Every structure is written in structure tokens, then in C-alpha cells.
Amino acid sequence: MSEAQQRAEALARDVLQLARNTLLVNLRFLDAALSQFTLVPSDLPLSTDGQRLCFSPRHVLLRYREEREAVNRDYLHMVFHCVFRHMYIHSLVDRPLWDLACDIAVEEVIASLAVPCAASRRQIRQAAVLEAMREEIHPMTAEGLYSYFQTQPPEDLAELQSLFWGDDHTLWYEKRGEGPGKDSGKNTAANSKGGKDGVEGAPLEAVWKEIARRMQVDMETFVQRQGIVPGALAQNLREVNRERYDYTAFLQKFAVRGEVMRLNLDEFDYIFYTYGLQLYQRMPLIEPLEYKEVKRIREFAVAIDTSGSVSGELVQTFVQKTYNVLKSTESFFSKINLHIIQCDAAVQEDVKITSQEEFDAYLESMTIRGLGGTDFRPVFAHVDALRDQGEFQNLKGLIYFTDGYGTFPAKKPDYDAAFVFVDEGVNNYDVPPWAIKLVLRRNEI
Question: Are residues 359 and 353 in contact, defined by beta-carbon separation less than 8 angstroms?
Fold first, then answer.
């Protein structure tokens, strides 16, 4: 490396460190996030894998000479990619759309912070586009934007990519555990030792997950006391820190113990079996148990909110999802007692299902009934009446699929009641203390 190249690299490092320090002074709640990167000279303009910040000295110096704030914004742009864990994505994602969604999401967050040191000229050009998107897309997170672009692909994709570009995402798509490729970084062996691999040996993704969690706590406790509430940042943190629910595991809450005809090898004693074969030739002392006690679903009710605010397509998808989960995990006993109740402000339909064959027939002929207002109380009154009539012998619980806008019963029922909501990123779903709440994304259904 020539002396001029060494000098350019040293100056570029100084510029990036100055950007980090400037941001640290203005955004104290980002202190841990801003200090995670190890600077690595590279042929890429700017890029990060969550550990290394790969930079082209020429790109950084030209960027700094043209507009000092642009380097600060690019640094913050990459930090937010890591905080929101945008690089930890599914391999089947549509890369151009995902890259664009992530860039727009972080630029929206930076704009909402209104920090002068990161207010570059591109923010002015982005303003009108972001304003129009806020009217159409909720929430303005990478996931929300990506879902929107999948159904309505942008006509000016290249223009939008150029407008919101802050860094190269090449390192996101490399295999985990490998450093930058031959065209993306230098001195990778040395840098792999010096980089921050996590707190106390934790995986890198877990480190950023903990940073995001701490940021959310800091914002809720300290930042809001000062009257500063950066809505876009809070929204993205809630999304990335949101607990992911396993609907399959959730349904097991409604299972009860019972016996099924199946060899129970768990309780089979091989000692007695082999001893009998030795002592009496072909006469074992013990045979495998023909019945096994398992936890499966025998009785429960599914209530469906068919008010005008819940789409029929989503309702049918939810019922199909529930059926698929039950069928794939063999959660049903051979004889079941399932009631599917459609209700808006009154009970519109109650279909009793006792076998998988009846469930199949119901799905084929299912029709949404109601589309009026929403009141949860009639369903609970109806279920209580069924119990009094002996229709339910051991009702484990009720699952109520709804958008959340309705009147809840005044007191807790004698069985578990769970409300399943579809979260569009704009609502806070309040339920009574006795109710179980499960919030799912549309794509999780």
C-alpha cells in the first residue's frame, strides 16, 4: 500500500470515528449501538454485517467533502439496520424489495429524530415520498413496507433505491460465519479476531437483540420524560422486540389428557421382557402397553368475529390455519366436540364438529354470516348455555378471533378464554385481566 493510500485510509477512519462521536453526543440512547463496529477498509463504499463496518476510503472522503452530514447519516443508517436486525432475513426474500424496504424504514426513523447533525440534503428529497407512503403503509417498518411492495410493486424501483440508499447490503447475504468476500474487504483474518463477536461470547444477532431491547427501555423511561417521542423509532423497536408467537404451541393450552390406542414404548420395561425370553424361551413376562396417555384436544369452541371490520377472507384463512395446525400435529382425539360460532352483535351460527371429516366438509361450505356490530358477550352466554345443557362435559377453553373492538363480559368465565388479534401495527389491544391475548401478524395466519 502506497503512502497516499495509507493516508487516505487513516483520514477516512478519522471521519467515521468523528461521525460516531457526533452521533453519540446527540443520541445518548444509542451509545451501545454506535460502538459495536470494527472499521475495515474495503472495496465496497459502505457496508456492515453487524460486526464490521467495511468502507472505501475514497467513498468516505468524497462523501465528507461534498456534505459532512451525509457521513453521519450513513453511519446512523447502518446502525439502525443492525438495531432492527434487517440482515437476519429469510433466504427466500425478494432481495431488491427487501433492501428498499429496509432503507426506507431507517431513513424514516432518522427523519423522525430530527437531529441536525444527520440532516443531509437527501432528507429534503425524501420528504414528499415519505409523506405519501405514511398515508398508504402501516406500519412504516421494513416488514410493513416489504409486505406492501409485494402486493403493489413500485414502478420507479431504481429511483427509490437511489433516493433512500445509504449503504451496500452485500454482506447481508453472505453465509453466516464467513467474512467479507474477496471484493468486499481486506485483512479479514486479522479483523475477525479484533471484531466484536458479542457480549460474553453471545451470537452477534443476540447482541443486537439485547441492544434493541435496552434502547426501547431507555426510550420509555428517560427519553419520553424529556418530551421527545420519536414515533418511527419507537414503532420499529416495538416491531423488532415483539414476541413471536407459536400458534401451534398456543393451541396446546386447550388440550386435555386421555388415552389413545398406541404402543407405549416409554413405559415398556426391556429387563422383564428379555428376562422372560431367557427363562421361558419364547414367553416374555411383559408386553408393550397398547394404550398411551397423551394430551390432545377433545372439547373447545372457536368464536369468529364476523362484524364488518373483520374481512371474510381473513376469517376463512384463520379457520383453515387452525384446522391445519390441529391436523398436522394430530391434536384431535378420534372423537371431538368442537363448536365453531360466528357472531357479530349476536350469535349468527353454531356448527358442531365431531370428526375431521366434518371439519373438511365445513371448510368447503363455510359462509360468513353477520357483518353487523361487535359484542363479545353473546358468545360467552351461548357457550354457558351449552354447558348447562350438557353439550360440553369438559370444556377446556374458547378461542375468539377478532379485531378487538367490542364489549367484553363483566366477569371471568369458568373456562380459559383467549382472544386472537390480527395486528396491523396501529392498535393496542386491551383485554380483561382474565383473558389470554395472542397477537398475530397477517402473514403468521
Answer: yes
Residue 338: partners with Cβ closer than 8 Å, 6 or more residues away = 297, 299, 300, 301, 302, 352, 353, 354, 359
Residue at grid coordinates 383467549: 418
pLDDT given at position 192: 35
Say how many C-beta atoms besides its own lie within 10 A of residue 249's C-beta.
Answer: 10
Angstrom distance (rounded) from CA 70 to CA 122: 8
Residues 115-150 pLDDT 10s: 999 999 999 999 999 999 999 988 888 988 998 999
- CB-CB contact of 164 with 126 (8 Å): yes
Cell matching residue 445: 395466519
Q: Which is it for strands 289-305 and 256-264: parallel, antiparallel or unpaired?
A: antiparallel
User: Torsion angle, CA of 166/168/173/176, rounded to 10 degrees?
Assistant: -90
Q: Which three cell numbers stand for residue 281?
A: 424361551
What 3-state DSSP class applies to 154? coil
* C-alpha Rg value of the chain to the nearest Å: 29
Answer for the pair 57, 34: CB distance below 8 angstroms, yes or no.
no
Q: Give 65-123 as a 3 state SS string.
A: HHCHHHHHHHHHHHHHHHHCCCCCCCCCCCHHHHHHHHHHHHHHHHHHHCCHHHCCHHH
Please tell me whether the peptide bond between 139 and the residue prior to it is cis, using omega within 30 degrees of 0: yes
Q: How far is 24 from 36, CA to CA, in rounded Å? A: 12
For 260-309, give the DSSP string: EEEEEGGG--HHHHHHHHHHSSS--S---EEEEEEEEEEEEEEEEE-STT
DSSP run (H or E) holding 124? helix 121-136
Three-point CA angle 301, 303, 306, nearest 5°? 160
Grid cell listed for 175: 453465509
What residue type is 341 in one-letter code?
A: I
Which residue spans within 306-393 are E strands per DSSP? Answer: 332-343, 347-353
d(CA 347, CA 237): 39
Q: How far is the C-alpha of 413 from the C-alpha of 300, rounded, in Å?
A: 14
> What was the pLDDT predicted at 381?
94
- Which of 415, 442, 417, 445 shows the shortest CA–CA distance to 431? 417
86-123 pLDDT, tens digit each: 998 766 789 999 999 999 999 999 998 889 999 999 99
- How many residues in total does the chain contain? 445
* Dist. CA 230–CA 246, nearest whole Å: 31
In this structure, the number of other CB atoms found within 10 A of the CB of residue 391 comes to 15
Cβ atoms of 230 and 29 within 8 Å: the answer is no
